[in-house]
Amino acid sequence: MISATQTEGAPSPASLLLEEIDPLAPQREAAMFYGLFLRGHSPDTLRRDIDVPRKLLDKLLKRHRNELAVQARLQRAYYFRKQVLAIFEELVTRERIKERVH
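Now predict its structure.
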């Protein structure tokens, strides 16, 4: 049943909260990009897709300088993407080492 504050298809507040505190979310996202890498996608292209340049974050923070909640979400998204990128880099490095050994 959809509550009066929700629209059909919109995530519930509980699911949004779980998404924010899910410690495995960066690993899941990195695994998705790693799967694309294993299917032949360029690691450099995938890195660009994952990464959020600091310059872009600064521009968005400046645009929303009076909206603290928006700034907090932008910061979380930025650090999340950096975590995903670091995990992806580790997976790609391990795959390349594994290829050299075999």
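The mean pLDDT is 86.
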